[in-house]
Amino acid sequence: MTTKVYLDLEWKDYRLSWDPADYEGIDLLRITAASVWLPDVVLLNNNDGNFGVALDINVVVASDGSVRWQPPGNYRSSCSIQVTYFPFDWQNCTMVFRSYSYDSSEVSLHTGAGPDGQDRQEVYIHEGTFIENSQWEIIHKPSRLIPPPGDPRGSGEGQHEEVTFYLIIRRKPLFYLVNVIAPCILITLLAIFVFYLPPDAVILSVVVLNLHHRSPHTHQMPFWVRQIFIHKLPLYLGLKRPKSERDQKPEPPPVALREPPGSGWGRGTDEYFIRKPPNDFLFPKPNRFQPELSALDLRRFIDGPSRAAGLPAELREVVSSISYIARQLQEQEDHDALKEDWQFVAMVVDRLFLWTFIICTSVGTLVIFLDATYHLPPPDPFP
């Protein structure tokens, strides 16, 4: 900490007393500092090794032997900074003065007297010459005389008195609010909006992308994943799974066709292409979570209970081909449904991460700011 101060030192030297009547009423003399005895009061916790004052000005000597010396000083003292609550912190910086070569038995220190004659217990600031700092403001500026510890002999030899000046300063946070905290809050808000983008477009989380691009060929969805991320969590996260198009669109009404003469075979063909039959028009639609119909059961249906009661060979080939197409369609539908399940799980996990991020950042920010608001300088420096 760099401070520019004026030392105000007063002491009495009996060797410099005189009777003004003997010297034409001269009551005050101004003498160079090198011509008189000085108490060599220095700053102990200086940071640059410069113990002296900035300018050795003259001392003012009165006829009663009192001497006053007010040299300017430019001191650099060490100050321990605590940045736990930065930028809402305050610091207690001290300046310790004592006589360098005289102990308390030779030089007794006292705090200066104020205009009312009482001991001044704080640093006096000249309002006309004081310049406000743009980063710090002074909250308290007390001073205290620290006597030496008790000596059983009572002589005080080898022990020193100290005068400690305390500067309790508080940081002005406006600069950091505008240039540090506000940009961090804006960046956090932008990070929250990233969660609303689809997983296909943003590489935000390896977990979300891994779930989004899973398929039945690579992963099998566990039962607990389906129960938690499809049936339970979406209700609490405000997610609703959209219905598929086949569930939303009603089946079109059958188209009435007029059968021209001699076109019995053509009528069936037209109805097949105009009215698309459901996938389970030959076999009951199996549930994709149940075991599929085995090939032996299909063969029994095609061949019948016996060769004699079975279908003709041409019809069996037709039924076998249609059965193969139906199985392929059913497998593709199950594949798409499971893939949609994985994508929905990815959406649920992404929304879960969104709320987790919002809660953590909000609670953390509130805790930091509320904790900093209670970290204020004490109203009384010496309670």
Automatic annotation (TrEMBL):
Residues 201-369 form the Neurotransmitter-gated ion-channel transmembrane domain. It is a multi-pass membrane protein. PROSITE patterns: NEUROTR_ION_CHANNEL (PS00236). Residues 242-265 are annotated as: Disordered. InterPro entries: Neur_chan_lig-bd, Neur_chan_lig-bd_sf, Neur_channel, Neuro-gated_channel_TM_sf, Neuro_actylchol_rec, Neurotrans-gated_channel_TM, Neurotransmitter_ion_chnl_CS, Nicotinic_acetylcholine_rcpt. GO terms for cellular component: postsynaptic membrane. The chain crosses the membrane at residues 174-197, 352-374. The keyword Glycoprotein applies. Its main location: membrane. This is Cholinergic receptor nicotinic beta 1 subunit. The lineage of its organism: Eukaryota, Metazoa, Chordata, Craniata, Vertebrata.
